[in-house]
Every structure is written in structure tokens, then in C-alpha cells.
Hints:
By secondary structure, the protein is an alpha/beta fold. It has one domain (16-195): 3-Layer(aba) Sandwich (Rossmann fold), CATH 3.40.50. Helices cover 28% and strands 34% of the residues. The chain is built from five helices and nine strands; from the N terminus they run E-E-H-E-H-E-H-E-E-H-E-H-E-E. It has helices at 43-55, 71-80, 91-103, 136-145, 166-173, and strands spanning 16-22, 25-31, 61-65, 83-88, 107-112, 123-128, 150-161, 177-185, 188-195. It has a seven-stranded mixed β-sheet with strand order 5-4-3-6-7-9-8, with helices on both faces. A two-stranded antiparallel sheet has the order 1-2. A hairpin with a 2-residue loop joins strand 8 and strand 9.
Amino acid sequence: MEHYFTNNPNLKSELRTIDYSFAGTNFNFTSDNGLFSKDKIDFGSRLLVETILKNKDTANNILDVGCGYGFMGIVLAKILNSRVTLIDINKRAVHLTEKNIIVNKVDGQTLESNIYENVTDKYDLIVTNPPIRAGKEVVYSILDNAKNYLTNAGELWFVIRKDQGAKSTITHISNSYICEIIEKSKGFYIIKAKNR
């Protein structure tokens, strides 16, 4: 089985378009085979974005970790009028995100990066819908190491399902972060974490 966090240049390309609208702002995304939730915006990502936008009205710069085709980072950057960096290990994801940045007219850049490998800046807001299927070690690495890339007042926001270890994940990262569950819906938890 092909996973969205692996690279397979031989995977057949079948581009498709996904539309999304928030508060009267319309977005258009190109997606493809080999990407997470390739046919529609998944509920967890949408809940994360919309919960952030209910709770925040500013962020100078945003980092979207494991960006896929760029939905979360692009919407947040456009609505919050921010600069965004979108990173993914998947080359196809990075390529499509570059196109989606242009189409949706946001101030953004992409990086092909295995987690934070190629990240050097610090951010006011780091967002991730972590790749659960990549395993707990990868998920914890994304969450644990975000603290090194947050500004002093920066926040890490992520989504995780209750049945995929939301509570144990919160317990795990609570040594490093002050955590708050901001939203719960359909088994998904939206968590905000700030450096201790």
C-alpha cells in the first residue's frame, strides 16, 4: 500500500480539484494520487483550521508540518494575512503545494523536509495533522520537536483522534508544553500547546 508520507515517482498522477470556502473567501486546491485525503478535505484538518480561526486573528508566520497539498497552511495564511512555510517529505505534495500557493495568492514557500530537517526559522504558529499511520515515533517527533521552532509566544496546534491516542499524546507532551484541549468533535481533539 502506498502511504502519503512516502515518495513513489512511478505512482500514476490523476489530478483533481477540491474547493473550499471560509467566511466568503474561496479556495481552490489541486490534489493527486499519493496524498493524504486526496479527494476531499478531511474532517480533522478542516476542524483544526476552523478552530484556529475562531480563536486567533493574527500570526506573523506559520509552519504547516506534513502539509499534503497545502490546505491548512494556505487557508490560515490567507485568512490571517500571514506568511506560511509548508513542509512535507513527499515530493509530489511539495510540488502541488507550490502550485496551490500561487493559485490561492498567499505569501508562502515550500520545503521538502523530513519533519524539521530543513527548517531553520521560528514561528508564531505551527500546525499539523500528524501522519498517524507513520507510527507513534514519527508523530511524537513532530510534536516534541516543534518547541525548538516556536517563538517565545508561539503556539503548536494539532488534531488527533481520541481512538488514535489523543489522551496518551497529551500526557506525553505535557512535560514540554502547557496543553489545552480547545475543541472536540466526532472523536477528534483539537489541542493547543505552548512551551513551558
